Amino acid sequence: MLDTVSAKTPARFITFEGGEGVGKSTQVKRLLGALEQRGISAVRTREPGGTPKAEAVRAFILQGRSESWGPGGEAVLFAAARLDHVNQLIGPSLDAGRWVVSDRFHDSTRAYQGLTGGVDDKLIRGLETLALNGRQPDLTIILDMDPEVAFRRVEERELEGALQQTGDRFEKEDLVWHKRLRDAFLEIASNNAQRCVVIPAGQSEDSLEQEIWDTLTRRFPELQDGPAA
Ligand code: TYD
After folding, report:
1. Nearest Cα to 192, choosing from 3, 2, 33, 15?
2. What pTM did the predictor assign?
3. What's the longest Cα–Cα distance across the chain?
4. Nearest to residue 138, comparing CAs of 22, 44, 43, 15?
5. Cβ atoms of residues 199 and 212 within 8 Å
6. pLDDT of residue 70
7. Whose CA is nearest to atom 13 of ligand 1?
């Protein structure tokens, strides 16, 4: 069965998106585990980051060093990091038959710098053309949660010590801003209904994992367990 899956299907590119504290990283890890259990070779990655150069850009941005450049300048930085990520990791992995699961990708630039940050859509699109180099996610899972609930969860996890108190600057924005961000992701989803699926993230980690897996098997029926050909 395992060989059958990899023989029948091209490698897929899956991205996870959503606001802060919605549980993306946990679900990305769980999905990798589920794919590997089925013998599917997959790469877990993230944005900003994923390659040494993109990780350097990540550190620069998240430490707040580019804040004074504004959302436009930062959109350019995220795109430059993405260009390296696509050309050095995502593209070669897919070409080698490995699935790629990324914790955030270009929709984050659309949502944070574009729809929420006010950067012109034409600029955002131009940067995408440059950075994506013809690659597009096959499926984008948008984890959706009321920001007030997400905030409480982040606070609880910080208190439990499960989450490092980084206080990186994108998490310091206020609640109104986070509500706008949530709407931005929902708008992206409705404008890209073929590619994006919105999943309520307030449920338990186990049921969320199951819903994500069900979404994948509906989208990629070759994943369903079946008799070997
Ligand atoms: P990270 O610690 O990875 O946050 P999260 O766990 O929420 O993904 O930090 C990444 C931050 O960078 C996050 O606040 C979202 C932001 N970001 C953008 O503003 N634009 C982008 O294009 C990307 C990829 C991330």
Report:
1. 15
2. 0.92
3. 58
4. 15
5. yes
6. 97
7. 170
pLDDT of 125-158, one tens digit each?
Answer: 999 999 999 999 999 999 999 999 998 888 887 8
Instruction: pLDDT band for 165, please (50, 70, 90 cuts).
Output: low
- Beta carbon of 187 within 6 Å of any ligand 1 atom: no
Residue identified by tokens 């993405």 is 82
State in Å: Cα 25 to ligand 1 middle: 11
Is the pLDDT score of 224 beyond 50?
Answer: yes
Return the amino acid letter for 210: Q
Domains of the chain: 4-221 (3.40.50.300)
Nearest CA to ligand 1 atom 19: 112
Ligand 1 site, residue 128, Cβ cutoff 6 A: no
- Nearest 5 degrees, angle CA 84-CA 90-CA 91? 90
Separation of CA 108 and ligand 1 centre (Å)? 7
